[in-house]
Structures are given as C-alpha cells and as structure tokens.
Amino acid sequence: MREKARAGRGLFCARASVQVDVVMANRDLQCTPHEEPMRPPGSAPTATSTSTLHKSGTVDAQGRYLGVTAGPYVLALPIAGVRSILDVGGGAPLDVRSLGVLPVSLAGLLGVTSSVTSPGLVLLDGAQAGSSGPLLLSCCAVHGVFAGDDERPLPRTVACRWPGLVPGTVRHDGVLRLVLDVRVVLGLAEAAL
Amino acid sequence: VIGDVPQLLAFSAAGLRLGVFIGDVARLLVEDGVVRVPFSHPALAGLLDVPGEGPVPVFDLRGVDGTLLLPAVHGGMVAVFQTVQGPIGLRLDALHGTLSDDAPLPVDETRAMLAALPDALRPLVTGAALCGGTPLALFSPEAFMAQLGLLQRT
C-alpha cells in the first residue's frame, strides 16, 4: 500500500509539471554553453535548476526537450513526457540485471539496430501520456535538456508510417532534431510487447 | 524559348540525365548532412536544414522503388523545387547547367527513352526534349510527389 501511495504521488507530480532528476548520471557530461548540465560532476543528484524554477522544485516543461540519439536518428523528447533521466550513457557497459526491468531500445522501436553497449536510460511518463505505465527507454546517447529554438511542424511532404510519431523539428545549438511524440513512442512500445 | 532566357536546368540523378523547367527550381544547395526520419518513404534521404527556409525534405530517386539503401551523401548537390505541398529537395549526381535551345524529341525517340527508364521512375517523367543535341527526360516535381503518394495529404 505504501508503495502504491508513493507511486501515485509521483504520478500526480508528473502530471502537474516535470521533475527532471538524475539518479545514476555519474559520468561527465559534454554540454554546450546553451545546454543546461543535468548534474555538475561531483555534486549530489538534484532537480534541474533553470530560470523557470517553481517553488516545488520542478520546472516548466513548455518548449523544453531532452536531446537523445537512437541509431542514426537525432531526436528530441518533449520534457513533459520524461519522468527521469537514469543514465546518460557512454560509461561502463550496462548490466540490465541491476535495473530490475528490461529497458526498451528506442532504436529498436524505430526499426534500426543499436550496437551501443552503454546506452542512456530515460524513464518516460506513461501515465501522462495516457498509457498503462512508465516506460524505461534506452537511447544510444543522451545529450541534455535544452530550450527549443525554431520549433516547426514536420513538412507536409514528409510522410511517416506512424502518423504523429514525429510532429515537428526543433533546432538547438545549430543541430536540427526530430521531436518525438512520447505518446506514440509508448504506443510503439506497447505494440512491440 | 523566350529570348536568351534559360528554360531548362539539366542534371543527372540516379544515373539518369534529366531536365526540369527552370521555374520549378527554387534553390541549388550543397548537402552537408541530412537528418534521417524514421518510418519515412525509402526515397526520403532526410531533412536538410536550409537557412531561412527551415527543414526541407531531400529525396533520392534511387529509393523510389524502395529497394535501395540510401548512402549518406556529404557535399553533394541538392535542387530544391517548389511544389503545392511545399519545398522538396532532390539529390543530384551532377549539375549540367541551364539550357535554352531545347526542342521536342521525336515521338518514337521519346517512346524509346521512356521505355528505357526503370519502371519506378517512368511516372516521374512527363516528356522529353532535345537540348544541345542531347536527349533529356523532363522531370516533374509534382509527378514525383504524386508517385510517392504525398499529394493526397492536404
């Protein structure tokens, strides 16, 4: 009961806004001047602090993204759909036994293979997306949280087999990224199970 | 031909020598890396970030039949066409320049040219012309979009 109550409280917080915290990010991050480091090396895990920090310690999720890559795809996940960043990847090979749950490969969901032995791990908020539950997603790399610049809808001349999977693009630090709809990603994961 | 105004842009793509009406060409760009799109049409190489324009889809004729894996191209030439659906880019093998002395290709030679085209690429060609003594198949961006099934998305 206590566990359920704790989980329920977490879901409520996630719906109200997004709390981005780093649980296992004990690796150095390479951040551009415009990127907000997820955690300074050597400091204790804390919530990401920005100019839009709320009293509750959470941040406004509007126009903010988590940059990730999956295989050849350069992507951005709206931070509103991300509950936690568990690992930024690039360190020691991942031992999935320590996670308690098998992560779902984002590259695999997108139809490509990934040979990364130390992927980044992101917990997607399934409850907010109307899905059955959160999803532990593995990405080839996690690049950090950034404020979106020049957000645009996907050109009409781009047809995608999964409508809505890529609603648009966003540019950050001169790099064009595809924005993924977390709800569709969760749908892909559920369809794959 | 109107005076000395060039009427066709001659180029090669997917091994074919093609021409397109110069009025359909918005820009010529150098491809410095495209952003690939998951689950998209095999002919879509990716999105090219065009300054002042935003992301423009770049297509490769080699992928129209869906059988070829598109290699990454850096430094290649891309022609951007304006269509009713918005701008689209096309990867070029080579750019041959503009031509203004085109003339209709005889019917039998046009038929022979169309017959020699791969099945998947034949619907993209709307005619043929003789430019500077060299036959060209006339490429239509709108026919290309129709072939990819993208004109229905309004």
Shape of chain A: globular
Strand order, sheet with most strands of chain B: 8-1-2-11-10-9
Number of beta-strand segments of chain A: 10
Q: Name the helicity range of chain B.
A: 10-25%
Question: Which structural class is indicated by helix and strand composition of chain A?
Answer: alpha+beta
- What are the segments of chain B in which pLDDT stays under 50 over at least 5 consecutive residues? none
Overall pLDDT of chain B: 83
- Summarize the helix and strand pattern of chain A as letters: HEEEEHEEEEEEH
Major beta-sheet overview of chain A: 6 strands, mixed
From N to C, what is the helix and strand string of chain B?
EEEEEEEEEHEEH
Q: How many distinct helices of chain A? A: 3
Distance between the termini of chain A: 28 Å
Q: Radius of gyration of chain A from the CA trace?
A: 16 Å
Structural class assignment of chain B: mainly beta
Q: For the report, how would you describe the main beta sheet of chain B? A: 6 strands, mixed
Strand residue percentage of chain A:
25-35%
The share of residues in extended strands of chain B comes to 35-45%
